[in-house]
Design brief:
The protein is of the alpha+beta class. It has one helix at about 5-50; strands spanning about 55, 55-60, 70-75, 80, 85, 95-105, 105-110, 115, 125-130, 135-140, 140-145, 150-155, 165, 170-175, 200-205, 230, 235-240, 245-250, 255-260. Helix content is about 20%, strand content about 30%.
């Protein structure tokens, strides 16, 4: 016997009621998940607000460098005297090695508006000038805010090696060589007289990618690896890597270069 029309209507209403209940339950689950995620995000943000401090004062969140600024955590390093005696950090002028905590997106060129991207990212190790940047205390740690122009070289890892160091942008790494000083008449000057004289000549061992132009392109280096280069007096920044003395020189400070044979 076929079911009556009223029986069919009742079955249809029951099916629709089940679908509506199921949909309502699913929507309720999604709403609960969204609420839970929202609460978790809020909790994380609140924790960050409580934990972040700058120069002993609480701030609303982590520092975000703008433009070409780079936030660097200074490294604990040891230096040695000529006699091999290790000197703690307190005796030295100040540390110049650090680890990038955060970096800005880079500055805009004032005439073209092209973004000159930052050469380093979070986690990179950098070497910068002795008097560059602004020292701060961030979350009870000594940090320095520098510009990307202050970075001499950057590398990944715990310490500098010839394999991992990269001169920053328009810097060139030169291995310094001994120079014999002579007078116009050919008399050789004693080494004791030249003790305080800074070397300004050597062999190019690594070259940066070049200075970024207003169009966002890198300019070509005037010297290549293996060339002998002479640069301006006191233009170099001395650095010792694996016991060898080098100098980091800007490309514009190189006076002349002799191509490798």
């Amino acid at each position: 016997m076929a079911p009556s029309r009223s029986t069919q209507y009742m079955a249809l209403f029951a099916a629709l009621a089940g679908i509506t209940t199921s949909s309502a339950f699913t929507i309720g689950q999604q709403s609960a998940v969204r609420t839970s995620l929202s609460m978790s995000t809020a909790a994380v943000e609140e924790t960050l607000k409580k934990s972040c401090s700058l120069d002993g004062k609480k701030i609303r969140g982590p520092i975000t460098p703008l433009g070409n600024f780079v936030l660097v955590r200074t490294k604990d390093t040891l230096a040695a005297t000529d006699g091999g005696i290790l000197l703690p950090d307190q005796v030295k002028e100040r540390a110049t090695e650090g680890e990038v905590v955060a970096a800005g997106p880079g500055k805009l060129h004032p005439h073209t508006g092209v973004r000159i991207t930052n050469p380093v990212t979070t986690g990179d190790s950098v070497l910068f000038g002795k008097f560059d940047g602004h020292d701060m205390n961030y979350n009870d740690e000594a940090v320095t805010m520098i510009r990307d122009d202050d970075i001499l070289l950057h590398y990944k890892g715990v310490r500098m090696t010839m394999e991992n160091v990269n001169p920053c942008r328009d810097y060139v790494l030169v291995e310094l060589t001994e120079q014999k000083a002579e007078t116009a008449s050919g008399i050789v000057v004693a080494d004791s007289v030249m003790a305080g004289y800074e070397k300004c000549e050597g062999v190019v061992v690594k070259v940066g990618e070049g200075r970024m132009t207003s169009k966002g392109e890198f300019s070509e280096s005037p010297v290549k690896v293996g060339d002998r280069a002479k640069f301006k007096d006191y233009a170099g920044n001395g650095v010792r890597i694996e016991g060898v003395e080098y100098s980091l020189v800007r490309m514009v400070d190189i006076l002349c270069g002799l191509a490798a044979e």
